[in-house]
Amino acid sequence: MKAIQFRTPRLYYDTFHPTINFQIPSSSLSLPKPMISRCSIVQSHHPNFTISYLIDSCGLSPDTAALTSQKLHLPSAERPDSVLTLLREHGFTDTQISNLIRKRPLLLLANPDILLPKFQFFLSIGISNTNLARTLTADPTLLTRSLEKQIIPSYNFLKSVLISDEKVAASLKRTSWVFLEDHKKNLVPNLNLLKEMDVPESCVTLLLTHFPEALMQKKENFAKLSKEIKEMGFNPKKTTFVLAIHVLSGEGNKSIYNRCYEVYKRWGWSDDDILTAFKKHPHCMILSEDKIMKTMDYLVNKMGWPSGMIVRCPVVLFFSLEKRIKPRCSVAKVLLMKGLIKRKLSLSTLLLPDEDSFLEKYVIKYELQVPQLWSVYQKKLDFMSVI
Fold first, then answer.
1. Which DSSP category does 302 fall into?
2. What pLDDT sits at residue 344?
3. Looking at CB atoms within 10 Å, which of 7, 22, 27, 147 has the fewest?
């Protein structure tokens, strides 16, 4: 079969990128014989055939099937059986199939020979069946778009910026709309703006790979937000600049930001304290209220650290309370009570080192004086029973 060739779209910088040649062997277009659905035995002209098929083969509830049948008529089980077989062959679970058909029932009438190359293309760039099924279930729109006119040109553009297929796949996992929208409308102008602000390519790549939705907002909003973040004191040359863009992009994130702001206020942080923590670790402003409250309660009320210490080291708010913070703090309490370490112990000294470094410095070093430290660290023994 002759290779299909697509040219890379014009980029926001003048660099030549080779075209993508995506070739599908003709033999691969032959789908396996579809499994016979329970509805296949029902006469296709029966007025309830579509509803029965949606219930028995797609897992829809009777009410949902009845509503769906108003915009979908299945003349027979042959085509939908082939579509369902294709989905199952590519790792879709029954629950995912049910959700997919509920959102896009007309996919049951799609030509499997047109759908198959789309699956093969995404697999060819390193997206696993599991991740692809999850992405398409969340938003099946991608399956309705042309491989030649939309999907491959979008891939060419993203690959030209992100360089690796792995990063393109990560961007798609975050939002399928990075493959669906016209890049020239907002994405390219926003990328150009970051370039004008001297944001390093590594930071641009980080934003497009992990938070592409931030770059896909309207160019006017993106320009205004970028200016505001710079005026807050963020350095465009540092990673925290693009992370702050992500934090303040979209109404959902802004709502979480405001909620976090109020939570930190309740712990005695001033406006300057909150800005300091935000500039050190922007994502501390989109944590859940429950996570902030539990961690602050333990560090401030149980361990006795002033909340201002967390302002200077907000990354500790991301650590697991049960797996990291409590075990390490319990060991520190034992060592403090026995006078083996100094009382002015900083959060960064105790919580930031990796596990091997922590164990070497605080457990192995003192295991002869306090043999129970291992049990305290592994939460097999309460620190109060050792003191």
1. I
2. 74
3. 27
* Contact (CB, 8 A) for 183 and 53: no
Query: What's the DSSP call for residue 10?
Result: P
Distance between CA atoms of residues 171 and 188, nearest Å: 16
Q: Please report the sign of the dihedral spanned by the C-alpha atoms of residue 68, residue 73, residue 75, residue 79.
A: negative
3-state secondary structure 139-196: CHHHHHCCHHHHHHHHHHHHHHHHCCHHHHHHHHHHCHHHHCCCCCCCHHHHHHHHHH
Within its chain, how far is the Cα of 12 from the centroid? 26
Q: What is the per-residue pLDDT across 342-381, written as a single tens digit (0 to 9) for each?
A: 777 889 999 999 999 999 999 999 999 999 999 999 886 6
Distance in angstroms (rounded) separating the CA atoms of residues 104 and 102: 6
User: Among 288, 274, 264, which residue's Cα sits nearest to residue 244?
Assistant: 274
Q: Where are the chain's structural domains?
A: 47-112+129-137, 319-386
Residue-level pLDDT at 387: 60
pTM for this predicted structure: 0.82
pLDDT digits (tens, 9 = 90+) for 53-94: 999 999 999 999 999 999 899 999 999 999 999 999 999 999
- Cα maximum dimension of the chain: 85
Helix (H/G/I), strand (E/B), else coil: 4:
strand
Contact of 292 with 317, CB cutoff 8 Å: yes
Amino acid identity of residue 251, one-letter, is E
256 burial via Cβ count (<10 Å: 0-12, 13-18, 19+): middle
pLDDT attached to residue 32:
44
The closest of 301, 231, 243, 315 to 268, measured between CA atoms, is: 301
